[in-house]
Design brief:
The chain is an all-alpha fold. Helices cover about 75% and strands about 0% of the residues. α8 runs antiparallel to α12 and α11 packs antiparallel against α12. The longest helix is centred in the N-terminal third of the chain and has 25 residues. It starts with a helix and ends in a 5-residue tail after the last helix.
């Protein structure tokens, strides 16, 4: 379980068993645990939603819906330390810069934030805020649970199925040191974790997978492959897409 705790410590702000000595191989071995790490986060998000929308109201304590939405919007960013949001913003700056492949990769490595990143991040937050605000508790709780699980499975898919844009960097560690059965283990664990949430969860999984392949294919054409930032962008966009899919599909499937 050493690889799991290393992945948990790297991808979140949780430190159950502190890991001080990390190797590139440890990072690669942690990839198969990404959906399980997502489940840990999902349990926290869903628990917070249940507390504020079901448990407290049952005792007569009703929080303003907009306040609840803001908390649920900010919580994933805080729990992940913003690592995926940073990747999302860097990717948006690079891919939408309209420059050459080499220049796009330089922009993505630049620590400065550009206008494309700001616009896309604000738009994404507004989309998630509106989606969360419109969700009933019966839909909101399971949606928040499956959201990080599916998002992290999409990262595993891209690590194992798509080439790297450059020979160094964070993406190489995940790609080079993850084993051949990594994706199988991640997929099986995801399918099991989604069982309590029913058919809607599997619809979200199908939508997320289709989006992941489309997005990864698009980025590969622009910059030649994946980077650590692109993995973050995939996870961030998939989380928003899962929430939106749950909101829309939940109106037709109970």
């Amino acid at each position: 379980m050493r690889a799991f705790f290393i992945g948990l410590q790297f991808l979140t702000r949780l430190c159950i068993v502190k890991q001080d000595n990390w190797t590139e191989q440890d990072f690669g071995e942690s990839v198969k645990y990404f959906p399980l790490i997502g489940a840990v986060l999902g349990a926290i998000y869903a628990g917070a939603a249940y507390l504020m929308t079901v448990f407290l109201p049952s005792f007569g304590v009703t929080l303003p819906p907009h306040l609840v939405t803001v908390v649920l919007l900010v919580l994933p960013i805080l729990m992940s330390g913003g690592i995926f949001c940073d990747g999302f913003m860097d990717t948006m700056d690079g891919v939408f810069s309209g420059r050459s492949r080499e220049r796009m990769l330089e922009i993505m490595k630049d620590s400065c934030v550009g206008s494309n990143a700001v616009f896309c991040f604000v738009a994404l937050m507004l989309l998630e805020w509106g989606t969360l605000l419109d969700m009933e508790p019966s839909v909101l709780v399971p949606a928040l649970f499956i959201m990080p699980i599916i998002a992290r499975l999409m990262v595993v898919i891209e690590i194992r199925r798509f080439p790297l844009a450059r020979p160094d960097g964070l993406g190489r560690m995940f790609s080079d040191y993850s084993t051949a059965n990594t994706l199988i283990i991640a997929l099986i664990s995801t399918l099991i974790l989604l069982v309590p949430c029913g058919i809607l969860a599997y619809i979200c999984l199908a939508v997320g997978t289709a989006f992941s392949y489309f997005f990864a294919g698009y980025v590969t054409k622009r910059i030649g492959g994946m980077t650590g930032d692109v993995y973050g962008a995939t996870a961030t966009l998939t989380e928003a897409l899962v929430l939106l899919t749950y909101l829309i599909a939940g109106r037709f499937i109970q």
